[in-house]
Fold these 2 entries.
Entry 1:
Amino acid sequence: MAESIYVLCGATSVACALLLFRAFARTGVRLLLWSSLCFVGLALNNLILIVDLVFIPDFDLGIYRGLVAMAGLAPLVFGLVWES
């Protein structure tokens, strides 16, 4: 059951990233680009979570997940500071 939730969260992050990229391509609003890059990072974080908890539960990938999450949030923070 938990594995399906992880997959759904990853799919939702990918869908959000695609929709934000598409909106950025149509409008050219840069904040949409930063948000879409953030969701790409969150989708990668969910992928690492699935690998960590489902496929190789004996090995802890928590540090890598944290680094990827931080790297995913960095473009959004940069974009919010840059656009203000």
Entry 2:
Amino acid sequence: MLLYGCSKYKIINEDNFVKIYSDLIIAQDTLSQPGVSLTQVKKIIFKKYGISEENYKATVDYYNSDPKKWESVFDKSIAYVNTLKNRKSH
């Protein structure tokens, strides 16, 4: 993991961030269970990957500072989601 600027929070490496970001997008798009909030789902996902919300936010800020890096994350996220879809259909 890299440190971003003077932030005390660590930047999540790109491969893990792609998975976390994808899981959050999928959860947000499919969240339909009554009584389950996005906040609860975020906590579950962050725990799954062993990160804090602050590390996630610091990583988002890091990628927001460079549109080309965001584009890379976004492209990899699409590919990752498609991989997950293909696994479910087989």
